[in-house]
Every structure is written in structure tokens, then in C-alpha cells.
Design goal:
Length: 141
């Protein structure tokens, strides 16, 4: 048996919920006005994309540190396609890793991305179970 994550998500009334996190920080989830909410919180499906980018980003950031690489800016764009029919889910996701800098070691950065995508990122592995993933690395001088 591996470790267990236990998250408590409490209804705040109307369409809002508060969810705790092992970090000690809470987050609010809410529907948009079109769906009867007040838009005062995160949308659950979009949160999954932040989760995916955050998980992989942590891997890459740690490898950038370890390999002592020079990167001025690093961002991850996640572009996901939702199915038309309910339950709507992401059937394909494009994940773009953007690196900016005047002295980028493209080979090592690509290696860092590959290690995250293929070996380390657990959220990526979960997404792989239900979505087609398209991974791109873009270097900006």
C-alpha cells in the first residue's frame, strides 16, 4: 500500500465548496454565473490542468536546479479539448513547455521535460489513462 491523500471538501452553500490541502492552504471551488454559481472559485476541470502543469513543472524546475541550467523564463501552456457529451472530459491535451533565455541548453532542457513526461510526473500518468497527450517543447531566444 502506498501513501494516502485525504482531502476534505465542504459545501459553503449555493454552488461553492472549500477544499483543504496537505500544504495547509485551502482553495475555493465554484461554478460560474451561467451554472448558478458566483464565479468566486476555481473550476474543477480547469484545476486538473493546473494540477498537471504544476506537477510536471515541479519536476522540470527541480531538474533545472540540479543541472544548473540557465533559464530566464519558463511556462507551461495546457490546451485541452472537452468531449461534447456528458460526462464531459478531456479526451486530448496539448502540453507546451516554453523556455526563454539567451543561453538555453536545449538538449538538457529537453531531457528534463522528457524525464518529467515519461518517468516522474504522476498527474501526467493519470491523464494518460483517459486522454491523448501531445507534448511540445518551445525554445525562445
Amino acid at each position: 500500500m502506498g501513501a494516502t491523500n485525504h482531502i476534505t471538501t465542504k459545501w459553503l452553500g449555493n454552488m461553492a465548496f472549500e477544499s483543504n490541502n496537505p500544504s495547509g492552504l485551502n482553495l475555493t471551488i465554484d461554478a460560474g454565473p451561467d451554472d448558478g454559481g458566483e464565479g468566486k472559485g476555481y473550476r474543477p476541470k480547469a484545476l486538473m490542468l493546473s494540477s498537471l502543469a504544476g506537477c510536471s513543472g515541479l519536476d522540470v524546475a527541480s531538474l533545472i536546479k540540479k543541472m544548473k541550467l540557465n533559464v530566464d523564463e519558463f511556462r507551461i501552456e495546457t490546451i485541452a479539448n472537452l468531449t461534447d457529451e456528458h460526462p464531459k472530459y478531456y479526451d486530448s491535451v496539448t502540453i507546451e513547455y516554453h523556455f526563454q533565455g539567451s543561453n538555453l541548453d536545449e538538449k538538457k532542457l529537453q531531457r528534463a521535460v522528457d524525464l518529467s513526461v515519461e518517468k516522474y510526473c504522476g498527474v501526467m500518468e493519470m491523464f494518460r489513462q483517459f486522454a491523448e497527450l501531445d507534448i511540445k517543447t518551445v525554445f525562445h531566444k
